[in-house]
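Workshop exercise sheet. Pairs work together: one partner reads the sequence aloud, the other fills in the structure field after running the prediction. Swap roles for the next sheet.
Pair: D.N. / O.F.
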Amino acid sequence: MIRSPGQSFRASPRRCLLRCLCTRFPPLPSPEDFPKWAFEPKPYFRFDILHQSKKSLARVGQITTPHGVIDTPGFVAVGTNAALKAIDFPSANNAGQQLIFSNTYHLMLHPGTDTIKEAGGIHKFTGRLNHPFITDSGGFQVFSLAYGSVQESLESGGELKRSKPRGNKRHWRSDVTGQNAVTVTEDHVIFKSYRDGSKVLLTPESSIQAQKAIGADIIIPLDELPPHHIDRDMLAKSLERSHRWEVRSLREHLKDSQTRQQAIFCVVHGGTDVQLRTKSLDYLTSLPWDGYAIGGSLGNGREELKTLLNWMMPLFNTEERKGKCRHLLGIADVQSVQNAVRMGVDTMDSAYPTKLARHGTLMTQAGLIRIKRGQHAKSYGIKIDDSCDCSTCIHYDRAYMCHLFKVSSSISRKAMKRICFIGTLIL
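Structure field:
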C-alpha cells in the first residue's frame, strides 16, 4: 500500500474523464506482444465443462485451483474483510460454499497486505486452507466512494434501503466519500482511507502486487467503474482507460506468474452499449487471461441486465472463448441469477443475500419474507422455506427466527440460510 500525503483531491473522477477526451494514447498491445507461454494452459488452474445444456447456454463445469475445486454454476459469497458477516468459514463450508470473494481495498487498509503475507497468505491467515479465494482490484470500492454502489440498489429492489438504520453506524469519516474525495489520473487513483483519512495511491501494478501478497487463487485487474448515467463519449474513454489499466495489470501479473499459482481474470466493460461492450469483449478475450469477468455498469435494473446478458453471452460461446470460465461481478438476486445461469454464466458474487438477511428479509422459493414483521411472531412450527432442507430450515421455525431478529441475535443460521438458498437455487 502506497500512501501519498502531498497529493491534491480537487479533481473529481468526472473532470478527469473530461480532461482525457482530447488526450492521445499509444495503441493497445496485440496478442503478439505477449509471450507465447502466457497463452498455454496452467497446471494449477483449469476449467472443465462437464455438461452443456441443449436448451440454453447453461453449462455444468468444474474449476480446479491450488486450494480446491469450484463446481459451476456456483454462487460466490462476499467476505469483504476476509470474513463473512454472521457466519464463520467452517459453517459456510458445510453449507456448500466453495469460493469466497474478498476485497483488496479493505484488506489493504486493515490488517494490511504485509500482515497477510507474513501470515502465509489469506488461506493460512483465515484457516481456510482447502477452499479457494478470489480478490478484486480495489477499484470498485474506490469508485464507489465517489459514485456510490449501483449493484446494491438494483438487486435489493428497495429492501436494503427500507430496512437501513438511521445514522452512520459504520463510523466512516465524512470526508472520504463524494467525487472530491477521489482523484483519477492516467497513472493512478488516489483516495482517502475510511479508517484514518490518510491518502492512499493505487495503481494497476500496486493492485496486482497487493493481491499477490494476499495470495488469492483468482485475482482481478484494476479497472475504472464509471456511473451508469454518464454519456457515451465519457463511457468510451473510461473503457479505453480500463483496457490500458488491465493490460498494465496483466503485464505485472506475468512477471512472476510461473512461480506463483494464481489465475487472473479480465473485466469486460462497456456499460449497456452494444458496440462498446462488444469491443471490450473482443479485445480482452484475445489476451492471455485465465478467465473472463463481466463488470462495469450492468444496466439500470434487472431488465437491462437481462437484455445485456441475452445478447452478450453468446459472444463468449465461440470455440476459442468457451473453454474459459465466466464470472458475473456483483449480482446475485433471484431473477438475475436464474437468467445468468441460463445464459452461460459460471460463477457470480454478491454480498446481497447475506446483507439482505441481516436486515430482516429472507429469500425463499416462495419469495421474500420480512421476518421481523409481527405476523411471524407466532408462526410456531412453520418452516422458513418449505422446499429447503438446510439446517436452519430444519431446526428453526419462523417464530423463533422472528425473535432472533427482534433481539438482534448474531446467530449464524440467519446468514447460512441465505447462502444455502442461493446455492440451491443455482443448482
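Discussion prompt: The first strand starts at residue 2 and ends at 3. What would you look at next?
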